[in-house]
């Protein structure tokens, strides 16, 4: 939204239009500044609440368990995909 307002509307559209839209530029610049301020505020709030004040629980810090669980999920997913592809391949062979 910021890029569209800044580049396309303020940069391209208003510069191509004549003096009739000159009064619109200050309003659009204020809107752009407001959007920037709000995005900055939301980013800082998220960083403060979700990152800076994050307190990990034991499960978050148990990386060996997380890695083992991830490996199990990958193995299960691979097996399911293998079965699906085998089934699809057999159907495709039969259709040709």
Automatic annotation (TrEMBL):
<feature type="domain" description="Conserved oligomeric Golgi complex subunit 3 C-terminal">
    <location>
        <begin position="2"/>
        <end position="70"/>
    </location>
</feature>
<dbReference type="GO" id="GO:0006886">
    <property type="term" value="P:intracellular protein transport"/>
</dbReference>
<dbReference type="GO" id="GO:0007030">
    <property type="term" value="P:Golgi organization"/>
</dbReference>
<dbReference type="InterPro" id="IPR007265">
    <property type="entry name" value="COG_su3"/>
</dbReference>
<dbReference type="Pfam" id="PF20671">
    <property type="entry name" value="COG3_C"/>
</dbReference>
<dbReference type="GO" id="GO:0017119">
    <property type="term" value="C:Golgi transport complex"/>
</dbReference>
<protein>
    <submittedName>
        <fullName>Conserved oligomeric Golgi complex subunit 3 isoform X5</fullName>
    </submittedName>
</protein>
<dbReference type="GO" id="GO:0005801">
    <property type="term" value="C:cis-Golgi network"/>
</dbReference>
<dbReference type="GO" id="GO:0006891">
    <property type="term" value="P:intra-Golgi vesicle-mediated transport"/>
</dbReference>
<dbReference type="GO" id="GO:0016020">
    <property type="term" value="C:membrane"/>
</dbReference>
<dbReference type="InterPro" id="IPR048685">
    <property type="entry name" value="COG3_C"/>
</dbReference>
């Amino acid at each position: 939204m910021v890029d569209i307002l800044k580049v396309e509307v303020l940069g391209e559209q208003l510069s191509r239009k004549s003096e009739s839209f000159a009064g619109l530029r200050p309003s659009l610049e204020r809107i752009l500044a407001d959007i920037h301020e709000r995005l900055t505020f939301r980013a800082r709030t998220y960083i403060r609440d979700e990152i800076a004040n994050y307190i990990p629980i034991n499960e978050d810090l148990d990386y060996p368990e997380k890695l083992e669980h991830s490996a199990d999920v990958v193995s299960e997913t691979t097996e399911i995909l293998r079965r699906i592809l085998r089934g699809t391949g057999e159907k495709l062979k039969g259709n040709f």
